[in-house]
Every structure is written in C-alpha cells, then in structure tokens.
Amino acid sequence: MFVTEQEWFYFPPGDQPAHLVVRLGGQKGVSGWGDCPCPWPQPQVARHCRGLQGLLAGYDPAQIEELHVVLAHLPPEVRTALESALWDLLARSLDVPLHVFWGGLFRSRIPLAVQVAWTPEDDTPQQFWPLLHEWHSHGFRTLLVAPARAAGREAWQQFLTACREWEPSVQLLVDASGVGPEELLPWLDEVHRAGITGVIDPARAEKAIEKRWATTSPVPVWASAWIESPYRAWELLSCQSVHAVALDPFRLGGWLRLRECVAVAAAAGAPVTLDLRRAWQPTLALGCHLAASTLSLARPLWTTARSWQSLPDQTPLRPGADAMLAVPRVCGSGVEPDRRALDAHLVS
Asked: Is the model's pTM score more than 0.85?
C-alpha cells in the first residue's frame, strides 16, 4: 500500500477559526482523512497546500515515524493532520479498526466533556447558568467554562458566587489562562471555596514553573496549552507545577508524540486526558480510538459542540444521550466525510 494522491480542503474563518481537512488516497480506492486548525493566513493557504503535493507520493503509510523526519519543516498542526490520515489509510487498507494498532479495545464507550463559552460582559449568571444546565441535561457530567475574553474581578465574583449552587455531581473546570499571575493565588482560593474541580492553564508556563502553583493551589491545576513536547510534560510534572495534563495533538505535532506524553503522565501518576477542543470529526475519531485502547485515558475527552458537527452533510460522530461516544468498530477511524459537501472547499 502506497500513497497515490493528496487533497486539501480549506474552511475559512467564520463562527470558528480557519480549518484544513486532508485526504490521502491509496491503492484500490482507499482513503484516509485528517484535519487541523489552519496555521497559515488565508492568502497563503493555496500556495502552501500546493507545496505539499508530491511530498508523500509513493509513501508507505506504515512508516509513520519517518513522517516526522520527512516533514519536520512543517507546522505541527499540518504534521498531525497528515499523520492522522496515514493512520486512517493504513487501518482501512488492512480492513481493521484503528484501535487495533494502539493496543486493542479496553473500553467501547468514551465519556466527553464539553466546553461552554462564557462572555463576561454579556452573560450574567442568570443568563449563563441555564446554558450549563442544558448541557447537563444532555448527559455531560464534566463541563469546561471558557471565558471568551479576560473577565474582570466583579464578573468573576458573580460567576463564583453562582458556582456555589451548582450541581455537586457535575465537575466544573475553568479556563484560567486570562487570569494574571499576580492575582492567581487569591483567585485560586476563591475558586476552591466555590467548588470548582479544576483550573486550566493558569498564568504563563514560566511563572508556573517558577512559583510551583500546584504546591500552593487548593484546586487541581491542569496543563494543556503549555505542553508542546514529551519533555515539556515531564518538566511540568517532575517539578510539581501541575496536577494533571490534557494533551492537544496539534500542539504536539501528532499521535506518536502524544502517546509518549501519555506514557510520561502515567509514569508520574498524574491524571491525563485528550484536549480535542480544536479538533473536527477526523481527529475526534482518532482520539476516540486512542482513548479506547489506552488504559490511562479513562477521563472525559475535552471537546466542543462543533467537534461532532463540523463537516457539512456527513454522518456525524455524535455522543449518545449519556454524552458517551461509541468507539467505531468499522475499518479505519470510522469517519466518512461527504465528498460532495467538501468539493466546494477544495484547495489542491
């Protein structure tokens, strides 16, 4: 089996950031799919995608490790999309589900955590809380609150006051990347008293290492955007800067590097999950297979609603009424985009 063709589809920014979808074709009409956030400005997309043509022509999809040498000059997001497509193509060519390559099937259903956007200036607790209750009614037991922009102290106070009345059976995590380092520690104390079960990426990574937030924070600190390599994961965990990690395959440059980070976190005894908030259906499907085949990835995958509603007119990878994804048992990743819907976005 060899790669015989390559196609890129570009989705310009709108309600969501710009995104790319790639199809790698193989012999006998087999295709593998991947996606990634677009790392290039819109005027440069066509030129870069044309430059990728031919790079993988005749490439053996089984040589995935070599991909990171051949394409080391590319942005990590693009390497992730191509690696995803190669895994999908390899599994489809052998007519087996993708999780077979990653250790088998430890679990057949994967829990999800959904990100809920909060606009501090527009959404009062009285307006925002019904939205959280709606997601809770859909079966989600872990919710991620992400401020659309930096919230002022008064807005945080109103939000945390409302949190005290939240359902105790639901885990509530807050994206704290907009909270300044100088006010972080007193803010973490308030978060703890409000019953928040975790904060994501508080302050800058350098400050986190310097001040070791995890040793002073009463609430668990999750690192996601800080982790760009297995070494970075080891550095943060070994110096006790964080309690847990959520791994984004696009920042790490692919699934091989991500699996190395999973091993680092497991060796450190730290909770670990996948941060798929920037993923569309092809990447979400691969994350589902990886979580199904990896014992330590038992926590809910971080997603957004668009993660399973991303590509138009395709069979969606939707969660059930209990917010669990069933692991596809068909060959490959289980995602089959609708080519007719994609053709309007074809770049090269």
From this structure: yes
